[in-house]
Amino acid sequence: MHVKILDERVVSRAKARGIDVLVYAPHFVRLPDIRARAARFSDDDLLVVPAREVFTGPWRDRKHVLAVGLSDPVPDFITLDGAFAEFDRQDAATLVPHPEFLTVSLTAEDVAARRDDIDAVETYNTKTLPRDNRRGRDIARETGLPGFASSYAHLHGTVGEAWTEFDCDIRSEADLVAALREGAERRVVRRTGVSHALRGVAEFAHLGYENSWGKVDRLLLSGMEPTHPSHIAYDGRFDDVSVY
């Protein structure tokens, strides 16, 4: 909970690492496409759950929020209030990925102010730095919110480097949403050692690609983002909370 890539290699590695449920939430992909791909790669040994990490706010004040259990599409580039309201309307589980990481995250103050609307805070993310993970644990402890772990894999080798063990059976998307929303007992687990540290370094270095060529391709070469609130797919439903 969660990965950004999904193909045969991801599925094979997840199964080899003993993962039973994989949350798939790629950037800038609409929910119907995420859901279709998740269904394609789910089988009796691995459940792939579709999710959306929504980019809220303008580029200079981005705050990412992860929603599991959405029934209707939610675009990026809407207000934080608009995103939380939509997640609540759909009874989705609302999670905080990488709190206080760089300039793309909810702050400790944001989490405290919205504590009643948040179901869990990420306390370990393979991509982020040790100080960021310490801060995530501090925020979870200070707010009394449950934690969760994520490989946050943008690269195949990171799949299965960190995971969350729930003290209950999860056999469907609805089971996962219920476990998150009800605060089910869980344990945050990660691999250790030099190999794990190097995986984290590789993931962090991948930010350079995301914020250079990846961004140029999205903004200048590919036209309007498919998850932009003005896209025809959203039929103007989010015009009142769009930030640009």
UniProtKB/TrEMBL annotation:
InterPro entries for the chain = Pol/histidinol_Pase-like
Q: Which domain of life is it from?
A: Archaea
Protein name per Swiss-Prot or TrEMBL: Metal-dependent phosphoesterase
